[in-house]
Write a structure and sequence with these properties.
single chain; 424 residues; alpha/beta; Rossmann fold; 8-stranded mixed β-sheet; 38% helix; globular
Length: 424
């Protein structure tokens, strides 16, 4: 293996390119966005990830990594493009199909083709392999085809790309071995070989497991509000049991994995997946639950101002994909009663379809601050930071603040039984 061509320079493709380039391989990163490619060739990054700007600058300057708007001949092709969902919650694999077709003119016998994109079960066998076969390649002997799903945590991507166990599912045992060897060149964790279908399902079930367990916590928050109990205290005590680990409730589930992957299973086995579907329904209901609490808080205020703090789907990243915070903002903004301002220190204006405010603009005169992402900046807030509010009420949907004192009234998403309308 001498040269690697990575298709897609997003949250996975760009760090993956940089990791292999750092290991000494010649890497060309292909993306359809000229802006992304130009940025890369300047040694710059277009996404926020710890350590990535420094690493990309280093490997680009060393001549090991460069960007291109077209694929190139290589020994290994890694497809790392998005797989969003359609409005009917079925998988949109158009990007995977396009990426596969784009590399066909550059393939030669003996190449390794790896799909890292998260895909529905049987996509490798029923979609990707047939594309290559239709173009004259024998995927049993000529091309080594495998699925190796990414499984990293934003904020720790560069670490986990190297240290995490990698699951490599080949369309043949030889393909699994060839693709596994690609990762063994850079990965210090285990590299486990299996068949493609098993690899596809393992990734989907990792995130479905988490989604189902978050749904349990979110359902507990709703139950606790009705029964007048503090869900956060309940979770803390229940988790003292050595075999219990209840998750924390929140404003919903977002990101390119948890909010999407379960649907890929449902699409292929709808009748057999009622638990997965109900968990998705519960988690999808949380933005409405958050908005309902804000409406209760402001029912006696004629024109309430709401400050939305945090637009990403999790803390300390800039990723707004499938973020429930965006949905909450839009639901509030569509209500003519509310004046809504959004502040997020990690998000740029071009990432969202509305204008962002500064911290001061958002807080001044606000009746409610709704914390929707657990950024470190929000964890460090004190009561004094809210002194310019019209009514200092903070609704913490991420249970991440530690505000104390009588000046600020703090509500947490799992402790709402004492929620009272704002009195001006």
């Amino acid at each position: 293996m001498k040269k690697i061509c990575v298709i897609g320079l997003g949250y996975i493709g760009l760090p993956t390119s940089a990791i292999f380039a750092k290991a000494g391989y010649e890497v060309v990163g292909m993306d359809v966005s000229e802006r992304v490619v130009e940025s890369l060739n300047k040694g710059e990054v277009h996404i926020e990830e710890v350590g990535l700007p420094e690493l990309v600058k280093e490997v680009v300057e060393a001549g090991k990594l460069r960007g291109s708007t077209t694929p190139e001949e290589a020994d290994v092709f890694i497809i790392a493009v998005p797989t969003p969902i359609h409005e009917d919650f079925t998988a949109n694999i158009d990007y995977v199909v396009s990426a596969t077709k784009s590399i066909v003119p550059y393939l030669k016998k003996g190449n390794v083709v790896i799909v890292e994109s998260t895909i529905p079960p049987r996509t490798m066998d029923d979609v990707v392999a047939p594309i290559l076969m239709e173009n004259g390649f024998d995927t049993q002997n000529d091309i080594y085809l495998a699925h190796c799903p990414e499984r990293v945590l934003p904020g720790r991507i560069l670490i986990e790309l190297i240290e995490n166990t990698r699951i490599v599912g080949g369309t043949t045992p030889v393909a699994a071995k060839k693709a596994g060897d690609v990762y063994r060149a850079v990965v210090t964790g285990d590299v486990i070989e299996t068949e493609a279908l098993t690899a596809e399902m393992s990734k989907l079930m990792e995130n479905t497991f988490r989604d189902v367990n978050i749904a349990l916590a979110n359902e507990l928050a709703k139950i606790s509000q009705k029964l007048g109990v503090n869900a956060h205290a309940v979770i803390e005590l229940a988790n003292k049991h050595p075999r219990v680990n209840i998750h924390q409730p929140g404003p919903g589930v977002g990101g390119h994995c948890l909010a999407v992957d379960p649907y890929f299973i449902v699409e292929k086995a709808q009748a057999e997946s009622p638990l997965i579907q109900e968990s998705r329904r519960i988690n999808n209901s949380m933005p409405d639950f958050v908005v309902e609490q804000i409406e209760k808080l402001t029912v006696q205020v004629a024109k309430p101002k709401i400050a939305v703090f945090g637009l990403t789907y999790k803390g300390n990243i800039d990723d707004v994909r499938e973020s429930p915070a965006i949905e909450i903002y839009e639901k509030l903004a569509h209500n003519p009663r509310f004046e809504v301002h959004a502040y997020d220190p990690h998000v740029q204006n071009e990432q969202v379809p509305f204008e962002l405010s500064s911290f001061e603009e958002a807080v001044k005169g606000a009746h409610v601050v709704a914390i929707l992402a657990d950024h470190n900046e929000f964890k460090q807030l004190t009561a004094d930071d809210f002194s310019s509010m019209a009514s200092p009420v903070v609704f913490d949907t991420k249970n991440c603040t530690s505000l104390a004192g009588d000046f600020v009234k703090l509500y947490r998403i799992g402790d709402l039984s004492m929620l009272q309308p704002i009195q001006l």
